[in-house]
């Protein structure tokens, strides 16, 4: 699944593309929640650069849980899916 969050901290819709190429539009997030979500995704993208042993893992643990919770709230269930999810946040 590819998720395209095509806005900044607004309540605009989220677009996702399923395995068959169908485009789906979901209602937007609350601005404060989206701001936290976008920040969490940006931080996750940077954690591979952390050199201190264990720092990336401990940082990622909480952020991954938050991102998964938000994705589950705004997108169809991915609970049993083994498919990777790619999130693209544009601002």
Name the descriptors.
91 residues; alpha+beta; 40% helix; four-stranded mixed beta sheet
What does it look like?
The protein has 91 residues and is an alpha+beta fold. Helix content is 40%, strand content 20%. It has a 4-stranded mixed β-sheet. Strand 1 and strand 2 form a beta hairpin.
Distance between the termini: 20 Å
Beta strand count: 4
Give helix and strand order, one letter per element, not per position. EEEHHE
Number of discrete helical segments: 2
SS strand fraction = 15-25%
Compact summary:
This protein is an alpha+beta fold and 91 residues long. The chain has helices spanning 31-46, 55-74; strands at 2-6, 14-17, 23-26, 86-90.
Write the layout of secondary structure elements.
Elements (H helix, E strand, L loop, with lengths): L1 E5 L7 E4 L5 E4 L4 H16 L8 H20 L11 E5 L1
Parallel strand pairs: 1-4
Antiparallel strand pairs: 1-2, 2-3
Helix pairs in contact: 1-2
């Amino acid at each position: 699944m590819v998720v395209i969050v095509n806005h900044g901290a607004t309540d605009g819709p989220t677009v996702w593309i399923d395995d068959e190429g169908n485009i789906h539009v979901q209602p937007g997030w609350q601005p404060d929640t989206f701001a936290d979500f976008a920040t969490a995704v940006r931080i996750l993208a940077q954690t591979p650069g952390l050199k201190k042993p264990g720092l990336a893992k401990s940082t990622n643990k909480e952020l991954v849980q938050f991102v998964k919770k938000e994705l589950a709230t705004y997108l169809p269930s991915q609970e049993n899916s083994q498919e990777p999810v790619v999130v693209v946040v544009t601002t």
